[in-house]
Automatic annotation (TrEMBL):
InterPro entries: ACAS_N, AMP-bd_C, AMP-bd_C_sf, AMP-binding_CS, AMP-dep_synth/lig_dom, ANL_N_sf. Residues 4-58 form the Acetyl-coenzyme A synthetase N-terminal domain. PROSITE patterns: AMP_BINDING (PS00455). It comes from the Bacteria. Residues 65-445 form the AMP-dependent synthetase/ligase domain. It holds the Pfam family AMP-binding. Belongs to the ATP-dependent AMP-binding enzyme family. It comes from Streptomyces hygroscopicus. This is Propionyl-CoA synthetase. Residues 510-588 form the AMP-binding enzyme C-terminal domain. The gene is prpE_2.
Length: 625
């Protein structure tokens, strides 16, 4: 048996021993004596008697070990033209002070803090400060609109919101205070205070419950890390489900720290002192796990990039950052590479920089198409490693484990299940499918440490959404197959969730916005293949009789409504007015069939269709010649 096979086998056959061994990489205030607690199965918890502090593990312990001068974080911000470096000691001090500021406002263990910020170091500081005092952060991506922020505020019920005066997009400045204000007008729950980081690009007016970050921090008494139970929540991160209501994915402290530390060495081959760059956003799980927690837990240097792959200022931006900071591995989404490739197909920019530090390029967030794989591999000459995981899983489920046993790359495949994950391909009846046959991707319970233990305040929804379809399995919502070598190929979602530029979005939420327009009788939103963003949402609406609005006006209003209610990140720009939507006899809209036609596939017409002529009439709309 090779190292991979042996490790994977042990992780499943002796999960208790495997994860207790891995737990030794973390400093505990009370070391765990047990790994898995399945006494409330299917709800499970890891390290039930362990106690630790995640911020201590990410910061203090490196300082105490004499490595306080090592760089913890590099903030590279082409949108402001600045680069800021924080050593471990400096970052710890900033975090301790801001934690003191939060405490002075009455924030304590178990309280929630919503963080709605751009890619600034203070976002990381706010997250780690929450972890330090046992508060639970809930970071909301800056590209979401007030209504989405309000939904998260109402679910998480934060005591405090932390925000900034603005975010800086290449073509506009996004002022956050009006967004937060509007969200709080829409929300039922009201936080006591809103802490605002003032940025010179656009300063916010403060007063009332809007406090200045700088004033709060300067006067604050630094606080030390508070021990919390391994099973206590570290954060809640909302992700799109099939309905409009986002799911609050809970992450615990102990399992999270153990799994992430383990993954840095085994999956990414990154160790203390290495420079690691995840080009994503702290608002996504990739940002939580691999911009903030994992690199700091192991004492590496993390790059926090406030810019885009192109336009800040050019298509050489990523290569500049790698060269300038001597990045050993970059982790980004395929959309970012496609954006660079579109502007600079011959990768001329790449030749301007010294990329000799770069060992590996990791890709996730959406399917890595073989064309983009070959482009990146051809120009960089380094291994380009696709891997697959989800907000819910918190860390990679399938990967090519560069630190454990590198394997040959097969373009289009995420390679093999990572130790800890018992991945199975199931048919509709729950029976396991043989190699080569596509089915639903399910994971046999227990999920390893670091995976979600539940949804925030809603065990029932957690079980109903993920654990009830196949007894003893977690349903990923993705479909795929394994080939004869055991390589996993993830093909796409089995539900109505779509992936736009690596952002997971609910078509149901967009349909709710369209349906609310007074002229719309019914509607559907489908995700259709797009060369740049992977998928783009496409709306189809049927008008009410006598709606009295021109089609162009309606289209504009609907596009504006989705941007206003969900946010620019939805990239909703295409909507067609149609006479009818194709349905089954029981009234289910045939979204999958429409998507197949729109993408040019020879889509079989379901025998249950109510009226085939509706579909025939739609064909030229879905796929114009
Ligand atoms: C493995 C587990 C997971 O899957 S976790 C999720 C992983 N996904 C990712 O990391 C996301 C990867 N994608 C990206 O980073 C971006 O899409 C990249 C590739 C950089 C392109 O960015 P951009 O050019 O802004 O396009 P986009 O489609 O992301 O944005 C659409 C519109 O939204 C806006 N937007 C974006 N971010 C913000 C923000 N933080 N605050 C405010 N607005 C934001 C963009 O400006 C854009 O707006 P507009 O429509 O052009 O006016």
């Amino acid at each position: 048996m090779g190292a991979y096979e042996e490790t994977h086998h042990r992780s499943l056959e002796d999960a208790e021993g495997f994860w207790l061994d891995a737990a030794a990489a973390i400093d505990w205030t009370r070391p765990p004596t047990r790994a898995l607690d399945d006494s409330r199965a299917p709800l499970m918890r890891w390290f039930p008697d362990g106690e630790l502090n995640t911020s201590y593990n990410a910061l203090d312990r490196h300082v105490e070990a004499g490595r306080g001068g090592r760089t913890a974080l590099i903030h590279d911000s082409p949108v402001t033209g600045t680069v800021r470096r924080f050593s471990y000691a400096e970052l710890r001090d900033e975090v301790a002070r801001f934690a003191g500021g939060l405490r002075s406002l009455g924030v304590s263990k178990g309280d929630r803090v919503v963080v709605y910020m751009p890619m600034v170091p203070e976002a990381v500081i706010a997250m780690l400060a929450c972890a330090r005092i046992g508060a639970v952060h809930s970071v909301v991506f800056g590209g979401f609109a007030p209504k989405e922020l309000a939904a998260r505020v109402d679910d998480a019920e934060p005591v405090v919101i932390v925000t900034a005066s603005c975010g800086i997009e290449p073509t506009r400045v996004v002022e956050y205070r009006p967004i937060v204000e509007e969200a709080l007008e829409l929300a039922t729950h009201q936080p006591d205070q809103v802490i605002v980081l003032q940025r010179d690009t656009a300063r916010a007016e403060l007063g009332g419950r809007y406090l200045d970050w700088a004033e709060l921090s300067v006067g604050a008494e630094p606080v030390g890390p508070v021990p919390v139970a391994a099973t206590d929540p570290l954060y809640v991160l909302y992700t799109s489900g099939t309905t409009g209501k986002p799911k609050g994915v809970v992450r615990d402290n102990g399992g999270h720290a153990v799994a992430l530390a383990w993954s840095m060495a085994a999956v990414y081959d990154i160790g203390p002192g290495d420079v690691w760059w995840t080009a994503s956003d702290v608002g996504w799980v990739v940002g939580h796990s691999y911009i903030v927690y994992a690199p700091l837990l192991i004492g590496a240097t993390t790059v926090l990039y406030e810019g885009k792959p192109v336009g800040t200022p050019d298509a050489g931006a990523f290569w500049r950052v790698i060269g300038e900071h001597r990045v050993k591995a970059l982790f980004t989404a395929p959309t970012a590479l496609r954006a660079i490739k579109r502007v600079d197909p011959e990768a001329a920019e790449l030749k301007k920089y010294d990329l000799s530090s770069l060992r590996t390029l990791f890709m996730a967030g959406e399917r890595l198409d073989p064309e983009t794989y070959h482009w990146a591999h051809g120009h960089l000459g380094t291994p380009v490693i696709d891997h697959w995981w989800q907000t819910e899983t918190g860390w990679p489920v399938a990967a090519n484990l560069r630190g454990l046993e590198p394997m040959p790359v097969k373009p289009g495949s995420a390679t093999v299940p990572v130790p800890g994950w018992d991945v199975r391909i199931l048919g509709q009846d729950g029976a396991e499918l043989p190699a080569g046959q596509e089915g639903v991707i399910a994971i046999r319970l227990p999920l390893p440490p670091g995976a979600l233990p539940t949804l925030w305040g809603d065990d029932e929804r957690f079980v109903a959404a993920y654990l009830s379809r196949y007894d003893g399995y977690y349903l990923t919502g993705d479909s795929g197959y394994r080939d004869a070598d055991g390589y996993l190929f993830v093909m796409g979602r089995t539900d109505d969730v779509i992936n736009v530029a690596g952002h997971r979005l609910s078509t149901g939420a967009m349909e709710a916005v369209l349906a609310a327009h007074p002229a719309v009788a019914e509607c559907a939103v489908i995700g259709v293949y797009d060369q740049l963003k992977g998928q783009l949402p496409r709306g189809l609406v049927v008008l009410k009789a006598g709606a009295g609005i021109g089609e162009d006006d309606l289209r504009q209003e609907l596009v504006a409504a989705v941007r206003r209610e969900i946010g620019p990140v939805a990239a909703f720009r295409s909507v067609s007015v149609v006479d009818a939507l194709p349905k089954t006899r029981s009234g289910k809209i045939l979204r999958k069939t429409m998507r197949g036609i729109a993408e040019g596939r020879d889509e079989p017409v379901p025998s249950t269709i109510e009226d085939p002529t509706v579909l025939d009439a739609l064909r030229p709309v879905l796929r114009p010649e």
